[in-house]
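Entry, Tuesday afternoon. Goal for today is a structural model of the target with adenosine-5'-diphosphate bound, before we commit to ordering more compound. Inputs were pasted exactly as handed over by J.K., no edits. I checked the ligand SMILES twice against the vendor sheet because last time a stereocentre got dropped in transcription.
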Amino acid sequence: MTSLIEQAAQRLEQLKQAGVDVGPATPAATSAAPAPAVAPPAQPAAAVAAPAVVTARSASDGHSKRIDLDLDALTAQGFLTPQAPRTVMADQYRNIKRPLIRNAMQKGASSLNHANLIMVTSALPGEGKSFTSLNLAMSIAAEFDNTVMLVDADVARPSMLRMLGLPPGPGLLDVLEKEADMASVLIKTNVDKLTLLPSGRAHSRATELLASDAMSALLDDMAKRYPDRIIIFDSPPLLLTTESRVLASHMGQVVVVVQAERTPQSAVQQAVAAIENCPLKMVLLNQASSKPGSGYGYGYGYGYGYGYGYGETDGAGHAGSGKA
Ligand SMILES: Nc1ncnc2c1ncn2[C@@H]1O[C@H](COP(=O)(O)OP(=O)(O)O)[C@@H](O)[C@H]1O
Ligand SMILES: [Mg+2]
């Protein structure tokens, strides 16, 4: 009987043999504890969190919003939340986030440009970018001294607000169009350290805006204004359009989500090649699960095998397992 983690490790091994640089495979957490069952497999996406209360708060900036996320509903859907009990998944995210946080918080002259900007992408749609982004954000928000902002930058297929059971609202695109200022579209939450930046209203030039000079200026401002804040970008896939590559070129770190047993190796290779110049890359194997019909495991399970692929193209020596 092969555990989800072992399968993930095997898959990483296959990728490595196919020439994809995924770094040393680090089997996540322990495979001894069975992953707890989550939402029934038949309707993973159907469960919708109860609408949260959206209140305009008279905060110091006069107009920042605050919402209460329905944490019980999110937990029931299989997302990490601060109140969730210790699970295999929580442990796995703890391992995944550690090098990301460490790299993000590196200080000093040699430190990486925009190290606190972390892009979550994949070769193709549907590989778990949004799922991973939210869980990573939750996991980092649970960390004592880090605040985190989750940005829905998959402007053509936004899903953050829906995933959280929230109604559509203004966001990134409106800021880029100068129709709203940043403070007015940010949403504070009942997860203390977590702030949300939605993608904003649907826009015919959404993808061009994402690759625009205005976006790069905004990213630079975000990286520098909040150097102690980790900003996670749920981003478009790399292989269908080009804006994701442009976005990647402004990010300090890039996490490439690979859906176990689904993403073709050639797609993974192309995706990694597309972000060749990004100094820090990590490949995360998502949804490693047993083959359908094998009668074992969680058909809709969450095994996270992952490997760190820290390519060091800048020669600055920011290795994943380097300075603590
Ligand atoms: N590890 C996982 N465990 C359970 N469900 C997952 C996992 N990864 C992704 N999903 C589900 O698969 C679907 C597609 O994932 P999503 O994150 O929306 O993909 P993407 O953002 O890459 O298009 C969603 O319903 C999501 O909840
Ligand atoms: Mg998505």
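The first strand starts at residue 53 and ends at 56.
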